[in-house]
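Quick one, probably user error.
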């Protein structure tokens, strides 16, 4: 029930959802004054959430900063990389399709090739409300194999549906084999706060390595300040989902 409710709440308060509802309301409301107010609010929200500078400032404040490879002074037994970056819409299963979060795989591979991590744990089944025929952990593991990771260096956890379940499952898998101090958590910069909080809550706190940044360096170009961008709305959608997720996790004691 928690899994379903958190998904519904996250989608219900998304900027696109709210703006769309306000525009629909402005089209059907008979009262001229209320019609105008609804339209102005919808337009104002659209301009706010599509502003690249404002969206980037919000993302910069939320994301955990990058760690240069040169600043990593120890080796880890395991990299724990979370799924959520493959897509299945193409409908073909003879290859792996990635969303923008492919950095989770590529940079984990770089950690492995540099000898910073010895083995890789891929954790995640599916975060969708409906069942899928292939687990995301299997797909990411297939990609790592193609990139040159030895099969014996890949461990898979493919049953978890969210970050909390991943934390519980990974701790159960590794407890008695290694310690949190020998593990490195790898996930997207916008997702790291919730992920690290979940693993800490279950008693498996780790060093972190952020990848897949939504933010860019602050600039004051005209297009950044004034031109509406769909990407800005998309970034708001992502971080609002994270805010809702972390809030819900804290309410139920998951983080």
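Nope, works fine. Designed sequence:
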């Amino acid at each position: 029930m928690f899994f379903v409710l958190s998904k519904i709440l996250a989608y219900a308060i998304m900027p696109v959802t709210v703006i769309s509802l306000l525009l629909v309301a402005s089209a059907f409301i008979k009262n001229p004054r209320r019609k105008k107010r609804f339209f102005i609010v919808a337009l104002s929200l659209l301009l706010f959430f599509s502003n690249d500078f404002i969206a980037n400032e919000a993302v910069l404040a939320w994301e955990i900063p990058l760690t240069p490879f040169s600043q990593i002074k120890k080796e880890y037994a395991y990299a724990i990389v979370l799924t959520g970056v493959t897509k299945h819409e193409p409908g073909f299963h003879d290859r792996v399709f990635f969303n923008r979060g492919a950095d989770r795989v590529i940079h984990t591979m770089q950690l492995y090739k540099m000898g910073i991590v010895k083995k890789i744990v891929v954790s995640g089944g599916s975060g969708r409300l409906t069942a899928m025929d292939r687990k995301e952990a299997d797909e990411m593991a297939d990609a790592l194999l193609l990139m040159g990771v030895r099969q014996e260096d890949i461990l898979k956890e493919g049953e978890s549906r969210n970050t909390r379940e991943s934390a519980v499952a990974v701790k159960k898998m590794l407890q008695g084999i290694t310690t949190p101090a020998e593990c490195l958590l790898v996930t997207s910069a916008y997702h790291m706060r919730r992920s690290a909080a979940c693993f800490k809550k279950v008693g498996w706190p780790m060093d972190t390595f952020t990848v897949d940044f939504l933010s860019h360096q602050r600039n004051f170009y005209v297009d950044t300040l004034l031109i509406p961008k769909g990407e800005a709305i998309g970034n708001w959608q992502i971080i609002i989902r994270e805010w809702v997720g972390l809030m819900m996790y804290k309410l139920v004691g998951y983080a």
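The CA atoms of residues 214 and 235 lie 7 Å apart.
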